[in-house]
Amino acid sequence: MSAFVIRRLMQSIAVVMVMSLIVFFGVNIVGDPVDMLINPEADQADIEAAIKALGLDRPAHEQYWYFLVNAFKGDLGRSFIFGQPALQLIVQRMPATLELAFSALFLSVLVGIPLGVYAGLRPETLTAKTIMSGSILGFSLPTFWVGLMMIMIFAVMLGWLPSTGRGETVLLFGVPVSFLTLDGLRHLLLPAVNLALFKMSLVTRLARAGTREVVHQDYIKFARAKGLSPRRVVLVHVLKNIMIPVVTVIGLEFGGLIAFSVVTESVFAWPGMGKLIIESIQNLDRPVIVAYLMITVLMFVFINLVVDVLYSMLDPRVRLQDMRA
Amino acid sequence: MRIFKAVFGAAVAIALAGAMPAGAKELKVGLANEPTAIDPHYHNLTPNNAFLASIFDTLILQDDRQRLLPGLATSWEATDSTTWLFTLRQGVTWHDGKPFTADDVLFSFERAPNVPNSPSGFGAFTKGKTLSKIDDFTIQVKTAKPHPLTPNDISQVKIISKAVATGATTGDYNSGKAAVGTGPFKFVEWVPSDRLVLERNDAYWGDKPEWSRVVIKPIKSGPARVAALLAGDVDFIDKVPTPDIERLKGDSNLSISQGPSNRVIYLHLDQFRDDSPFVKAKDGGPIKNPLRDARVRKAISKAINRDAIVERVMEGVAVAAGQLLPDGFFGVSSKLKPEAYDPQGAKDLLAQAGVPDGFQLTIHGPNDRYINDAKIAEAIAQMLTRVGIDTTVETMPKSVYFKRASRGAEGGLPEFSLVLVGWGAGTGEASSPLKSLIHTYDKSQGFGSSNRGRHSDAKIDALIEEALATVNDAKREALLQDATERAIGTLAIIPLHYQVSTWAARKGLSYAPRTDERTLYSEVHAN
Questions:
Q1: Residue B259 phi/psi, 5° resolution?
Q2: Which of B189, B457, B446, B423 is closest to B297 using CA atoms?
Q3: 3-state secondary structure of B463
Q4: How near does any CA of chain B get to the CA of A294, in Å?
Q5: Share of chain A above pLDDT 90, in %
Q6: What is the CB-side half-sphere exposure of residue B182 using CA atoms within 13 A?
Q7: Residue B195 in contact with partner chain A when CB distance is under 8 A
Q8: Rounded Cα gap, residues A178 and A155, in angstroms
Q9: Average pLDDT along chain B
Q10: Per-residue confidence band for B498, with pLDDT thresholds at 50, 70 and 90
Q11: Which among B36, B171, B219 has CB closest to A164?
C-alpha cells in the first residue's frame, strides 16, 4: 500500500515539475510586459531601468531557476503590476470565486436532480420534454451572452437585482462571504445562476438517464411489489442509485466550474480569481499568471492523487495492476 | 397652540432630515480601469494618476484642457532660465489635521523616483531638478539645463505628508494607513477589483465637492458598465463603448458628456530601411522601400478618407486630425488642416514616385488598446487597396504588439512597415509628441523613444531641442508650431483622428469632459 502511495507521489511531483517548466516558458515567450507597465512617455533609459528592475534582462533559464528556488520557499514571485506577492493576490480573491463556484454547484444539484428524476420517471409527458429541450439550451447558449441577457432583464428592465459587484460581505471564520447578508445574496444570485446553467443541464441529463435505467431494475420492481409507497421508492431507492454517476461527474467538473467562472466574473464584475487572471493575461503580469496556473496544477494533481489512493483502497484490483505494471 | 407649533416644527425637521441628511450624498461610479496602488508614487499610469488626484494634490493642477492652474502652489515664476520659485498655499491641512509646509514638498520629490518595486516611476519628472526650501512656504527649483516644462513636470508629482509617509511602504498606502493627502476626498478603503471608497474632505482648501461619499466600482467589460448604469447600480461611468453611445443619447434618463482627448491616432511608416519586411512589389518580389519617398507617404495620407473613418468606424465619436494635438493646445499650428480625401491625387503621386501600380503592404495594429483600433486598421487597408497599394491587415493584443512594433526586429529595431498607434500628450502641449515620435531616435538623450518609423530630420530635431530649452512661452510656441508644420509637411507621421472621450451619467448629473481622459469626482455636479 505505502509503496503504491509513494509511487503515485513521485509521479505527481514529476507532473508538477514538467508543468512548471511548460507554464513558465510558455508565459515567457509571449510579448513584453515592460510595454504594459511603463508610461509611454518614458525615455529609453527609463525603459531599460524597468527591464532590469523586473529581472527581464536575464536569460529565461536563469529566471526559471530563480523562480524554482523561490517557489520551494513558498514564494511564487511578485506581481509586476501590483508589487505584491502573486500568491497573496490570488488567495485574496479566492473566497469570492469559491463562493460563486459552490453556490453554482449547489444550485445545479438543487434544480438539476428533481428535474432530471421527474423527466426520467415520466419521459413521455410534455413537461419532461420541455425540461429536456431546455437542458439543450443550457448546454449550448454561451455563458457571456446569457449573463448579459440576465442583466438586461433582471437588472435593467425589471430592476429586481443588482447587475454588478459582490455586495456586502461578512466574515465567516475570517473569510469574507456574501451569502449571509441579504445584499450579498441579491448580488450573488444572477452570477451563480449564470455559472450554474451549464452544470444544471448536465446534472438534469445525468439524473434523467440514471432514473430511466434504475426504474427498470429488479430491486425497484421488488420494492414496488413489497408495497412501498412511490414516494419512498423514488426518494430512497431511485435517488440513492442515480447519485453515484452524478457525484462522480460533479466532482470532476468542479475544477471546470472554477475555470468557467472567468467569463461570469468578467460579465458581472465579480471580484474573484477569474477576473484577476484575465486582467493579468491582458497586462502580461507574468508572475500572477504563472502562480495561478501552478496553483491550478497543484490542485488538480492533489485531487487526482487523493482519488487514486481512494480507489486503490476501495478496489484492490487497481493496486495490484499498478504493482504489476 | 405653541406646543402644537413646536411639535409640528420638530416633525417637519425630522421628516426633512430623514429625507435629506445634511449634505450626505453618495456618488456611485463605474470605472473601466482600476488603479494598481494607492501609493501616488508607485506607478506612473493613467488610472492611478487619475484616481489618486482626488486624494492627493499637486503643486500645480491641470484644468479640463490641461492648462496649468494653481494647486498647492499659488504662484510660480522663472527668475532666470534655470531657476524657478514656487509660492506655496498657506493654511492647507492634511487629512489628519496637520499643517502642510515646504518640507512635505521636498520629501515628496525625494520619494517619488525611489519607490521600491515600482514598475514605472516618476523619475522622468524629477530628473535634473534640485529642490530647496527658501522658507516654509517658498520652494526654489534649480534645473540642470534651461527647462521650460518645469511647471508641467511639477504638475505630475503628487505631494504626500512627510510625517505620515516617512518609512511607509506601498502596502501602507494600499491599506489606508499612509493614504493621507490634502485633496478634496479622503481615502476610506480599497477592496481590490471590488470597490474603492472615498469620503469628502470637509477641510479642503478649494471648492468642496458635493459628494459626501464616493464608491467606485471597477467594471472592465464595456457592456456590463453600461448595464450597471442603466440598472441604476452606478450613477456615472467612463469610457462608454462607441456602439452604445447613440442608444444612451436617446435615453431621457441619462446624460452624456463628450470631448476630444489629447490622444491622436496616427500611422508610423518605415523610413529607415531600404528593404522593409512588410513591403513587397505587386508580384510579391522584393522592392526598394517606397515608404521612404515623401510622395508615397503623401499618397497614403490622401488615400485615407478620415471623415469616413470618423463617421462609420468611430460612429461620430472622433475628430479628424491634421497634426499632433487638437486645437486649443499649446504649440498647435493654426495652418494645419486634416488632409482631404483625394484618391486620384494619391494615384498621381504614386505614379510620380515611380510606383504607378502600387505595391503590397501590411498594416499592423493592436486590437485591444485604442477605441475600435482593429476596425480602423481594416478600413485603412481597404482605402489603400483602392488606390493600388494592396494592403493586408494584421492585428494582435497590445501585450504582443508593442514589443514587436518598438523593438521586434534584429538589433532592437521596429519590426513592422506600417503601424497604427496612438499618442496621448501627458504634458498637454506639443513638445510631448514631437520629442517622442518625431525627433530622431537618440538613446543617449532620450529622444524619439516611440519613433517606430525612425523618421529623421536634422532641421526638425534642432527646432525641437531649441524649443525644449526656451523658457519664453511665445518663442517656444512658435518653435513648436514650426517643428509640427515641418513634421507634417514631410509626413513624419500620418495623423488620422483625435479620440473623443465619452462619459455617461444618470439625468441630473453633469461632467465637463477632460482632454486627459481623467474622471475627477469633485467635478461631477448635480444640476
A1: -165, 155
A2: B457
A3: helix
A4: 22
A5: 7
A6: 26
A7: yes
A8: 19
A9: 91
A10: very high
A11: B219
In chain A, what percentage of residues exceed pLDDT 70?
Answer: 95
Q: Looking at residue B7, what is its pLDDT?
A: 47
Q: What is the dihedral of CA B425, B426, B430, B436, to 10 degrees?
A: -70
Q: Give contacts of B42 with chain A, Cβ < 8 Å.
A: 83
The three grid cell numbers given for residue B121, joined into one nine-digit string: 516611476
| Mean pLDDT calculated for residue range B23-44 | 90
Confidence band (pLDDT; 50, 70, 90) for B10? very low
- Whether residues B436 and A275 touch (CB distance < 8 A) is answered with no
CB contact (8 A) between residue A41 and residue B42: no
Chain-chain contact of B218 with A30 (C-beta, under 8 angstroms): no
Q: Give the per-residue pLDDT at A42.
A: 82
Q: Find the closest chain B residue to A38 by CA distance.
A: B120
As beta bridge partners, residue B259 has B501
Q: Is residue B4 scored above 50 in pLDDT?
A: no
Report how far residue B326's alpha carbon sits from residue B305's, in angstroms, rounded to the nearest whole number. 18
Higher-confidence residue of B46 and B440: namely B440
pLDDT tens digits for A134-162?
Answer: 888 888 888 888 998 998 899 888 888 88
Q: What is the pLDDT of residue B213?
A: 95
Collapsing DSSP states into helix, strand and coil, what is residue B60? strand
SS3 helix, strand, coil % of chain B, rounded to 5? 30, 25, 45
Phi, psi of B98 (to 5 degrees): -80, 150
A88-103 average pLDDT score: 89
Helix (H, G, I), strand (E, B) or coil at B258: strand
Chain B residues touching residue A46 (CB < 8 angstroms): 120, 123-124, 446
Contact between A105 and A246 (Cβ < 8 Å): no
CA B228 – CA B221 distance, rounded (Å): 11
B429 bridge partner residues: B330
User: In percent, how much of chain B has pLDDT > 90?
Assistant: 80
DSSP labels, B367-429? SSSSTTHHHHHHHHHHHHHHTT-EEEEEEE-HHHHHHHHHH-BGGGB---SEEEEEEE-TTSB
Alpha helices in B116-169 (DSSP H): 123-126, 150-154, 162-165
- Collapsed DSSP state (helix, strand, coil) of residue A203: helix
Provide mean pLDDT across the span B238-246: 91
Query: Which amino acid, one-letter code, is at B7?
Result: V
Q: Tell me the C-alpha to C-alpha distance, in Å, between residue B463 and each of A193, B78, B425, B460.
A: 63, 22, 19, 5
Q: So what's the ipTM on this one?
A: 0.80
**3-state secondary structure at position A109:** helix
Contact across the interface for A83 and B446, Cβ inside 8 Å: no
Instruction: State whether A267 and B170 contact (CB < 8 Å).
Output: no
B220: contact with A, CB 8 A cutoff:
yes
B/e letters for A113-131, b = 16+ CB within 10 Å, e = fewer, are bebbbbbbbeeeeeebeeb
Q: How does residue A315 score in pLDDT terms, banded at 50, 70 and 90?
A: low
Helix axes A239-267, A182-214, angle to 10 degrees: 140
User: Which letter, b or e, does each residue of A255-293 get, where b requires 16 or more Cβ atoms within 10 Å of its Cβ?
Assistant: eebbebbbbbbbbbbbbbbbbbbbbbbebbbbbbbbbbb
Q: What is the pLDDT of residues B138-178, one digit of tens each?
A: 999 999 999 999 999 999 999 999 999 999 999 999 999 99
Examine the pLDDT at A26 and tell me if it is beyond 90: no
- Does the CB of A156 have a partner CB in chain B at under 8 Å? yes
* Coil vs helix vs strand at B166: coil
C-alpha span between A33 and B215 (Å, rounded): 30
Interface A–B counts its CB contacts (< 8 A) at 158
Q: Residue B314 has which C-alpha cell?
A: 468611430
Whether B454 shows a pLDDT value over 50: the answer reads yes
CA distance B299 to B292: 12
